[in-house]
Fold:
Amino acid sequence: MPHTKTSTTTRPSRRGVLFGGAAASLGAIAALGIDSLTSTAAPAGASEPPHGHTTIPFYGAHQAGITTEPQAHATYIALSLRHALDRASLGRLLRLLTDDAARLTQGQPALADTEPELGVIPARLTVTFGFGPKIVELAGSSAAEIQPLPKFAIDQLDERWNDGDLLLHIASDDPLTVAHAQRMLLKDARRFASVKWVQTGFRRSRGSEASGTTMRNLFGQVDGTANPSPDTEDFNTLVWNADGSTTMVIRRIRMDVDTWDEVDRSGREFSVGRTLANGAPTTGVQEHDEPDFEATNALGFTVIPAHAHIRRARSGNTSERIFRRGYNYDDVPSGSDISNSGLIFVSYQKSVAKQFTPMQQRLADLDALNQWTTPIGSAVFLIPPGCAEGGFIGETLFTS
Amino acid sequence: MKTSFALRTVALSAATLVAMAGCAADPVENSSSTPAGYSITMTDPWVKAADEGMSAGFGTIENTSDQDVTVTAVTSDASTELELHETVANESGAMMMREKSGGFIIPAHGELHLEPGGNHIMLMDLTAPLRPGSEVAMTLAFSDDTTFDLIAPVKDFAGANENYEGSDHEGMNHGDMKMDDSDSEGAHDH
Structure:
């Protein structure tokens, strides 16, 4: 067929372009990029307004990074104070770190920043500090509210993910910004403390879906639907103490994605009591529909079973609630594993003992999800109030 | 502690303006020019942490007046002797620091950056360890005998290791960070 033959010999194939280009100039093909060969998309950056200069205020009654709409990337770093650190040294450390955070979150390089060009794209950077019992006591206050959680039957805690003296929670929509802030903060902390653990988490990147969308975890579940909304009276009552502080629970929850693979869709939805499609209760249609725990199916069983996660998490006592702000983790697998995935569970509440622990105890006693999830790390921190310009985070503990 | 907090408010504030102009000597009465000590601001001053020996101070000095001003000397309780240094290449091309003859000139409505690898204030012999997060008070003296007081926080900094011209010493490389507990923060901080 002459017609066909002509067509195939004159039209340059993609392979022809690629290899021809490579032979002519490797540099040229690299500069072209694959997009110019394969797509008709608009040039990158043509119409998207950059969001890197967006800032979240650092100073205030509360620390930032809690009611802040969660950024795409978060790193949690627990530090251990060096031996023999005294109260005066602790104060100096906290002033240094506060100054770094105050500058970097506003898109200004840290003082003596070695890479100042990395400090000018905050992309909603927040740095939130948490204190373990040792810091609170060293400063001269009571650590009764932030003792380690009781041991739960489901726990398989590994000491490498537990506890810590000083928590740095660094979050931004840009992971390069997180890395730079982490480096600058740790350089100032190095003399005073060593790194105990680092947990890196992520959500969907900024702009890939509407801000405020409930996050999905690596089981594919809509995770956190029942959260109270920041800046509501309900939230303030559940989270903020009178002095502007709160408490934080951070638990590393391993998710067994391999055994989860064995469960079909209805079984997955049954275990939680919510649909995978949009997180609606299995008795409802929309994500935020109220679950009907009394509804029964044709056989007379409740639609949301007795061991479903949302039924077990809920208490008749409405003060036993928390504010969740977790992240996914997906780290390097070991051995023959192909996944090392899970959830960095983070919750804020006034009282760990009155709000978090009763809920966790119910879930430890019975929760269908426990078949696929295992807590492997746990820590509790005081989140001290925010500070005003010229002050430093933690200063209220030093007033005595 | 109280004093330290008050001073810090100025030195570490994110607004980064240190407006602690002070004149040890009375301003020249019948001069039309603004005394140098009143026409200077210093932004983001800081001093490199060091346990002993030498260290260096940095920051940006801005001259808001219509005349050039000249910094002729710096004094501080933190060091028995301070010098104004510049960093220049020697005959073999290596960067060396040496005393800046004639002092630092800050042009009218201009600024002078004091930074690692460039001009800096040299603390020649520390009187006590400079601990990270503490503060150093310094006084700049100008050619018209006015002065400017500033407070600079101390930061750990791995750089600023230029060699000192005409010296066998290792320059400012005294601030190396020892991490073992016996030498780290707090062990001597009582």
